[in-house]
TrEMBL record:
Organism annotation: Dyella nitratireducens
Protein name (record): TonB-dependent receptor
Region Disordered, annotated ranges: 49-79
InterPro entries, per the entry: Beta-barrel_TonB (IPR000531), Beta-barrel_TonB_sf (IPR036942), Plug_dom (IPR012910), Plug_dom_sf (IPR037066), TonB_rcpt_bac (IPR010104)
Major location (coarse): membrane
Entry-linked SUPFAM superfamilies: Porins
Similarity comment: Belongs to the TonB-dependent receptor family.
Pfam families: Plug, TonB_dep_Rec_b-barrel
Name of encoding gene: fhuA
Keywords: Cell outer membrane, Membrane, Receptor, TonB box, Transferase
Compositionally biased spans, kind Low complexity: 49-64
GO MF, one annotated term: transferase activity
Intracellular or extracellular location(s): Cell outer membrane
TonB-dependent receptor-like beta-barrel domain ranges (all copies): 444-957
């Protein structure tokens, strides 16, 4: 059962330390106060960093967090710059030290991962790097709505359990065309990154958009380094199941030149290329249905039992190619003026080929084979039995006493390209005033083709055990040789789906900051304005299923079907599933359409139409309902005041207070469509009235939001500090949720003489943004350059929560039950984080190279909403409480690290508890959960000399299983099965990559 689970370069200068050490008693009181506040109902953790403004300086252009308090004196800035330039620590230790400095000295809550060495983020994927940060978790599925297809690499990012995460590149808003509002982080090469920052409670400078938080990806700039930098890396990776070796390479060149008359110039180019191949094997159970019929309950002594529809097994071969380029130019004609241009372009090409043996009967038609009974546990849940189905088969021979299975050969190919080009300047008007500006253009497009060709057979003597070897389902058939005969299969169906998505945004911003040099409390203030114009021009078809031959769609053969031994026999082959699930599971082989047919979508119809029944499958055609054309304009203005005093309160205190004002204007153009009732035995006037005709839909609207923020920090000692933060955030609805399309339908009675229900589905252009009031507090102790211990608590009060609901709407004087997203709910998220990093330098000899990292996050939510679907009639019924999507109650990271002499190594384990993937999975229409998951990764590097380093990275050393769970199931009339049933078990490659890094 389930319950409620539930600003420039100037900012790089540190203030002189002028406070006194505290007594031990005073320190103890301060610690106790901090802990009390930390675990109060309102709190949060992380680091405080002023936003990457994207203005002219090195730190601002790369989106680096604002980590120091301004002094207002240029001399101190120059001294600090010299000190930073003198740092020569490298490797893991240097990256941790830099990240810790960012955290300790930041002006707002932010956590960072840095790559001090070129191309040296700790993971080969940006997404997998992010999961190392406390409070951040990731998905491992291609799409949360499709839990049947785990991703080759980590995918969606959640912060403190919320999927509403804003993405930035060098402090500027960015996105991928296929991901709604944000960036698909797996699209971006990790090799291009200088660092990744996670803002958990952004201040007024940060661009609005993420109530979960904001992720900022930073690339390098030529003025970041004192002179020439050259870096090169190459590698080869391989999975232990796929057995395919794939290359990776990157190259960076950066330099700066001083001239006598034109000032200083800098240029940088960073290139990246990588490929990956991976195999995933999965076995699944079909949804369990509540049964009270005599056939299902026979021999059990129970009045109600729960029976699965059968089992599925599938192998997916995944291939990915990722390319990236980051380029930058900087020009400083005088000490007070700087111009820059920055370009980042990434291309992500992905494809996967799947062979899936998929149960093809109706779940509630499954019965025990003749002369047998099903076996159940004490709760009436199916354990094992021989399956039969009484679904109508037509005249197909040898079809009785069997269970229908499809052999799905499915190929999906997707290409996404995102280009982000920005130009800007920074001008020091005088010693106290800085003006900066920035123009940005983001263009992203994505194309996807998804094509499946189906065979079908009726397997005899199917025995299913839900708890076989290694605790996994087991499937056998009798006789086992039945699968080897192509005559026992026929060409069943085909299905295609296409997407073409284009997004573009133009953004301009202007910022002014002013230093208060002589004030005891006021440090500096910033004001800024930003305007954007974004367009989305997307095409996404439905999944266009059509028969080739079926018992009800026949051709002129003895069986009425196109059997695979006589129809296109060269396009079918036996797929053996050899070595399936690392040999832990034995499953039957099946005849499948050959891979080259599925991968040749453009020619498939010309091949298949020769054997199709009349009215069979034809390639999908774009309709007005597939189009989504939207525009959005925003205007924002902010003001923020930074303050601080070392003596007035007895201890140093600083902080900032600000507000961001945002106006959003939207326009939409789309279509509505009435049902097509022609060809039925309905009144002629009714059929003439509804012929599938379209009608125009359009709309426009706007809304305003006021987003205040406040950050306060108390420096209790040199090493101990306590933070408080409060802000208001917003997340605009996804463009898919606002799609201006209304599809109206009609359900007919069995003899098609009357309409029994008028219904529809739609987007909602009138949606408003989700709003969150956010409160954080943190106690942080920095006891060494690479040693920290922190604890944080947080609370989010969420309004305008978006969920699907069904209401009655009137069109053409007819009432329709229309399901669309609405702002209908509220929610609450609260929790705490604890983190620890340290190198054990006090240990003797080689042991002093040892270190450890660990963090733990607890998150609790309330307020999730869902609409359920009855598995029998498919009707929408009242749902039941669920947690918010994507929220794990517990998650942690623990890592052992080592760096001494020429060696450095890392052994890292990440784990998260069960969480809700979707309130209605695309395949089962049930709530779908991802079970607890942990994965062990490792790396080891050896420095041959000052220029060359070699290493090995390893992923998924624990051979971890991705497991999905389904339920509860609502049947209507108040009947709910609260059991959570296992759905799928997936295993994928352990990955190994040999690397060489060269710096000159």
């Amino acid at each position: 059962m389930i319950g409620k689970v539930q600003a420039s370069e100037m900012h790089g200068v540190e203030r002189p330390v002028r406070y006194k050490a505290m007594s031990s008693a005073r320190l103890a009181v301060a610690v106790a106060m901090g802990l009390a506040f930390t675990y109060g109902s309102v709190s949060v953790h992380a680091q405080d960093a002023a936003p990457a403004s994207g203005t002219g300086s090195a730190s601002a252009q790369t989106g680096a967090v604002n980590t120091k308090t301004k002094t207002g004196t240029e001399a101190k800035k120059q001294e600090q710059a010299k000190a930073l330039a003198a740092v020569t620590v490298t490797g893991i230790r240097a990256s941790l030290e830099t990240a810790q400095q960012l955290k300790q000295n930041a002006d707002q809550i932010v956590d960072s991962v840095t790559a001090v060495d070129i191309n040296a983020l700790p993971d080969r994927s940006v997404t997998e790097t992010l999961q190392r940060i406390s409070g951040v978790t990731i998905d491992r599925f291609v799409s949360p709505n499709d839990a049947d297809h785990p991703a080759g690499e980590g995918s969606g990012v959640m912060i403190r359990g919320l999927t509403q995460v804003s993405s930035q590149l060098n402090g500027r808003d960015t996105f991928s065309a296929n991901s709604g509002r944000g960036l698909s982080f797996e699209d971006i090469p990790a090799e291009l990154m200088a660092g990744v920052d996670v803002y958990k409670n952004p201040n007024a400078e940060i661009i609005e958009g993420g109530i979960g938080g904001t992720v900022n990806l930073r690339t390098r700039m030529p003025f970041d380094a004192p002179g020439q930098q050259i870096g090169f890396s190459t590698g080869v990776n391989e999975g232990d199941i796929s057995k395919k070796s794939k290359p990776s390479a990157s190259f960076l060149y950066s330099n700066r030149w001083k001239t006598e008359s034109l000032g200083e110039f800098g240029a940088l180019i960073d290139l990246s290329y990588s490929e990956l191949s991976q195999q995933t094997d999965g076995i699944q159970l079909e949804p369990f249905t509540r049964r009270t019929d005599a056939a299902a309950t026979a021999g059990s002594g129970l009045s109600t039992v729960y029976v699965p529809g059968g089992a599925d097994w599938r192998t997916l071969d995944f291939n990915r190619r990722r390319m990236g380029i980051a380029g930058a130019l900087q020009w400083r004609p005088t000490n007070n003026l700087e111009f820059y241009s920055q370009l980042v372009r990434s291309s992500y090409d992905m494809s996967w080929l799947e062979h899936g043996a998929i149960f093809a009967d109706s779940n509630f038609d499954i019965t025990p084979a003749s002369g047998t009974d099903f076996n159940y546990n004490g709760q009436g849940i199916f354990q094992s039995g021989y399956l039969n189905s009484d679904t109508w088969r037509g005249n197909y021979p040898a079809s009785q006493n069997g269970v229908a299975f499809n052999g799905d050969t499915r190929y999906q190919v997707q290409s996404t390209t995102t280009t982000d080009w920005s130009n800007g300047f920074k001008y020091n008007i005088n010693d106290h005033m800085v003006l900066s500006g920035d123009l940005q253009l983001v263009k992203s497009y994505s194309n996807e083709t998804d094509f499946t060709v189906f065979s079908q057979t009726y397997l005899p003597g199917v025995f299913l055990s839900t708890n076989g070897s290694h605790g996994l389902p087991m499937v056998t058939i009798n006789p086992s040789t039945y699968v080897d005969n192509a005559a026992n299969y026929f060409w069943s169906a085909a299905m295609d789906h296409k997407e073409n998505e284009n997004g573009m945004e133009r953004a301009a911003r202007l910022d002014l900051e002013y230093d208060f040099e002589d004030s005891k409390w006021l440090q500096y203030m910033k004001f800024g304005v930003r305007a954007t114009s974004r367009s989305e021009d997307n095409v996404s078809t439905g999944y266009n299923w059509g028969p080739i031959t079926q018992p009800w769609a026949t051709i002129d053969t003895p069986s009425g079907l196109a059997t695979m031994n006589s129809s296109l026999p060269n396009y079918a082959s036996l797929y053996s599933f050899s070595g399936f699930y690392r040999g832990q599971v034995t499953v039957p082989s099946l005849y499948f359409p050959i891979s080259s047919l599925a991968t040749n979508y453009s020619q498939a119809y010309s091949i298949l139409k020769s054997i199709e029944a009349s009215g069979g499958w034809k390639p999908v055609q774009i309709t007005p309902g597939d189009l989504n054309n939207q525009g959005e304009k925003t205007q924002a203005a902010y003001g923020i005041l930074y303050f601080g005093n070392d003596d007035a309160l007895g201890i140093p205190v600083d902080g900032n207070i600000g507000v961001r004002l945002v106006r959003t204007s939207e326009r939409t153009n789309g279509e509505g469509q009435y049902p097509n009732l022609s060809g039925n035995d309905l009144p002629p006037a009714l059929m003439a009235e509804y012929t599938g005709q379209y009608f125009g839909l359009s709309g426009s609207g706007h809304y305003q939001n006021v987003l205040p923020s406040f950050n306060l920090r108390f420096k209790l000692t040199d090493d101990l500090q306590w933070r408080l933060a409060a802000s208001k955030g917003m997340t605009r609805p996804d463009f898919t949720q606002m799609q201006p399309f209304l599809l109206l339908g009609a359900t007919l009675n069995t003899d098609k003489t009357a309409v029994t229900q008028w219904n529809g589905t739609a987007g909602n252009p009138d949606l408003k943004p989700m709003i969150a009031k956010q409160y954080d507090t943190a106690l942080e102790w920095y006891f060494s350059p690479t040693g920290e211990l922190y604890t944080t608590a947080f609370f989010k009060d969420i309004g305008n929560y978006i969920a699907q609901e069904t209401y009655t709407e009137t069109y053409n004087n007819q009432q329709w039950s229309v399901t669309r997203p609405y702002n209908i709910g509220t929610g609450m998220v609260r929790g705490a984080e604890v983190g620890y990093n340290q190198f054990f330098d006090f240990l003797p000899g080689a042991l002093k190279g040892l270190g450890a990292q660990a963090n733990y996050t607890y998150v609790h939510s309330e307020g999730g909403i869902n609409t359920a679907t009855s598995p029998y009639g498919g009707a929408v019924v009242t749902g039941f409480p669920l947690p918010m999507v994507g929220l794990s109650r517990n998650s942690f990271n623990v890592a052992g690290i080592y760096q001494l002499g020429n060696w450095q190594a890392r052994l890292a384990y990440s784990w998260r508890s069960r969480y809700l993937l979707s309130t209605s999975d695309a395949n089962t229409h049930l709530p779908m959960w991802s079970d607890s998951y942990g994965q062990l990764d490792a790396s080891v590097f050896y420095t041959i000399n000052k220029n060359v380093q070699v290493g090995l990275t390893m992923n998924n050393l624990t051979n971890s299983t991705v497991k999905t769970i389904m339920g509860p199931t609502s049947y209507g009339n108040g009947i709910v099965d609260y059991n959570l049933y296992p759905r799928g078990w997936f295993t994928t490659d352990r990955r190994y990559e040999l690397l060489m890094r060269v710096t000159l």
